[in-house]
Specification:
By secondary structure, this protein is α+β, with helices and mostly antiparallel strands. 44% of the residues lie in helices and 19% in strands. The chain has helices at 2-20, 56-73, 92-105, 108-111, 121-128, 157-168, and strands at residues 27-30, 36-39, 47-53, 79-85, 137-141, 147-152. It has a 4-stranded mixed β-sheet with strand order 4-3-5-6. A two-stranded antiparallel ribbon has the order 1-2. Helix 2 crosses helix 6 (157-168). It is globular.
Length: 170
């Protein structure tokens, strides 16, 4: 009986392990201020907050999340935060127009925190547990890229409080 219980436990750990250690993909991209951004940020103890959107409509839904994160983290320069519009599925000849419109709609300071994703959309969808194209996806990751907190969907005061509680621990 003990052997059977040990086998079941081992199987459960093997099956659940990917869920417990889900991480973001390694990423190198350029923010809207033309600075290179590498993720995860590998400085020991680093934390990074990411807001990802996968459609034009999700961009509007990302704004309240990003604004709440930016206001909370302006006093914590050791925590990086980025909004990451995933435009990988847009035709390459359209991406330039999309990026131009994004750049023109936000301040120079905000441009440092906007990092478009132009490839590997499916890998990012897997990382965020993608379920709805128009939802924003919010992640807090550690210096190894492990996802330590996540949420998705429309911003609400309750969700902001959960986010604020998580950010206060960083």
């Amino acid at each position: 009986m003990r052997i059977f219980a040990a086998a079941v436990l081992a199987l459960a750990i093997f099956v659940c392990r990917p869920l417990l250690s889900q991480n973001i993909p390694s990423f190198s991209g350029t923010n809207l201020a033309n600075e290179t951004v590498h993720l995860p940020i590998t400085t020991s103890g680093a934390r990074t907050v990411l807001v990802l959107g996968f459609s034009k409509k999700s961009g509007d839904a990302c704004k309240p999340w990003f604004n709440a994160i930016a206001s909370q983290l302006q006093a914590k320069p050791q925590v990086a935060y980025y909004e990451m519009p995933v435009i990988a599925s847009a035709p390459s000849f359209v991406r330039g127009m999309i990026l131009h419109n994004m750049r023109g709609s936000i301040s120079a300071e905000q441009q440092k925190h906007f990092v478009p994703v132009t490839e590997n959309a499916q890998v990012w969808k897997n990382a965020v547990n993608f379920s709805a194209p128009d939802d924003p996806y919010i992640l807090i990751v550690d210096d190894h890229g492990n996802i330590i907190w996540r949420d998705s969907g429309t911003w609400s005061p309750v969700k902001e409080q959960e986010l604020q509680t998580s950010l206060a621990k960083l």
